[in-house]
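quick q for whoever's on today - can somebody do inverse folding on this one?? i tried earlier but teh output was garbage lol. tokens:
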């Protein structure tokens, strides 16, 4: 089973389309939150993920759009109610068992952190190993990660929408997870 993983799309429908094309045939698609922006909505992104029957989490930008100040006015002007209802019902985390492996999907961290930006260099990164899972998938930081913590695999696909800063500019990325092998790799778009 091959799983495509995206995060932090931030309304970038074109980048999502390129990522999906480059993934090739996949069995499942996971989107780890921030599929829209806190002040912009993309029906194209929402409908693409819905059509792919993706497992989609609600991230902090999605939450801000739906529940922040002035959200009702923004929603009425830019989105169909059916798309909004779908987005509102996305969970902030998901626990799945696939191919005999326990997966935990979160947007930022497995523990309550008020959306802290926890990268491998952060002193709290080892806390990912506390999760009751074989594989933890997270987004939010825009920094791609494939790291083992003991027997656990921790994967962050990076960001499809904004990318991560490098010496040559911002690089967008996604991840592919081979569940039977328990291995993941990052694929850069730029």
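ok took a stab at it. sequence:
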């Amino acid at each position: 089973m091959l799983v495509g993983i995206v995060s932090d799309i931030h309304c970038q429908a074109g980048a999502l389309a390129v990522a999906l094309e480059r993934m090739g045939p996949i069995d499942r698609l996971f989107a780890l939150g921030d599929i829209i922006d806190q002040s912009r909505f993309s029906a194209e992104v929402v409908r693409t993920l819905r059509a792919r029957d993706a497992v989609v989490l609600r991230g902090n930008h999605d939450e801000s759009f739906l529940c922040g100040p002035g959200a009702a006015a923004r929603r009425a002007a830019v989105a169909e109610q059916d798309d909004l209802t779908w987005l509102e019902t996305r969970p902030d985390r998901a626990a799945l068992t696939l191919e005999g492996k326990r997966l935990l999907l979160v947007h930022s961290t497995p523990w309550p952190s008020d959306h802290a930006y926890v990268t491998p260099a952060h002193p709290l990164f080892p806390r990912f190993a506390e999760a009751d899972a074989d594989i933890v998938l997270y987004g939010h930081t825009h920094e791609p990660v494939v790291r083992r913590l003991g027997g656990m695999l921790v994967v962050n696909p990076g960001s499809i929408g904004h990318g991560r800063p490098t010496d040559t500019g911002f690089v967008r990325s996604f991840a592919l997870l081979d569940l039977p092998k328990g291995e993941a790799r990052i694929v850069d778009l730029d």
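fwiw The chain has a mean pLDDT of 93. also The longest helix spans residues 13-23. so keep that in mind when u check it
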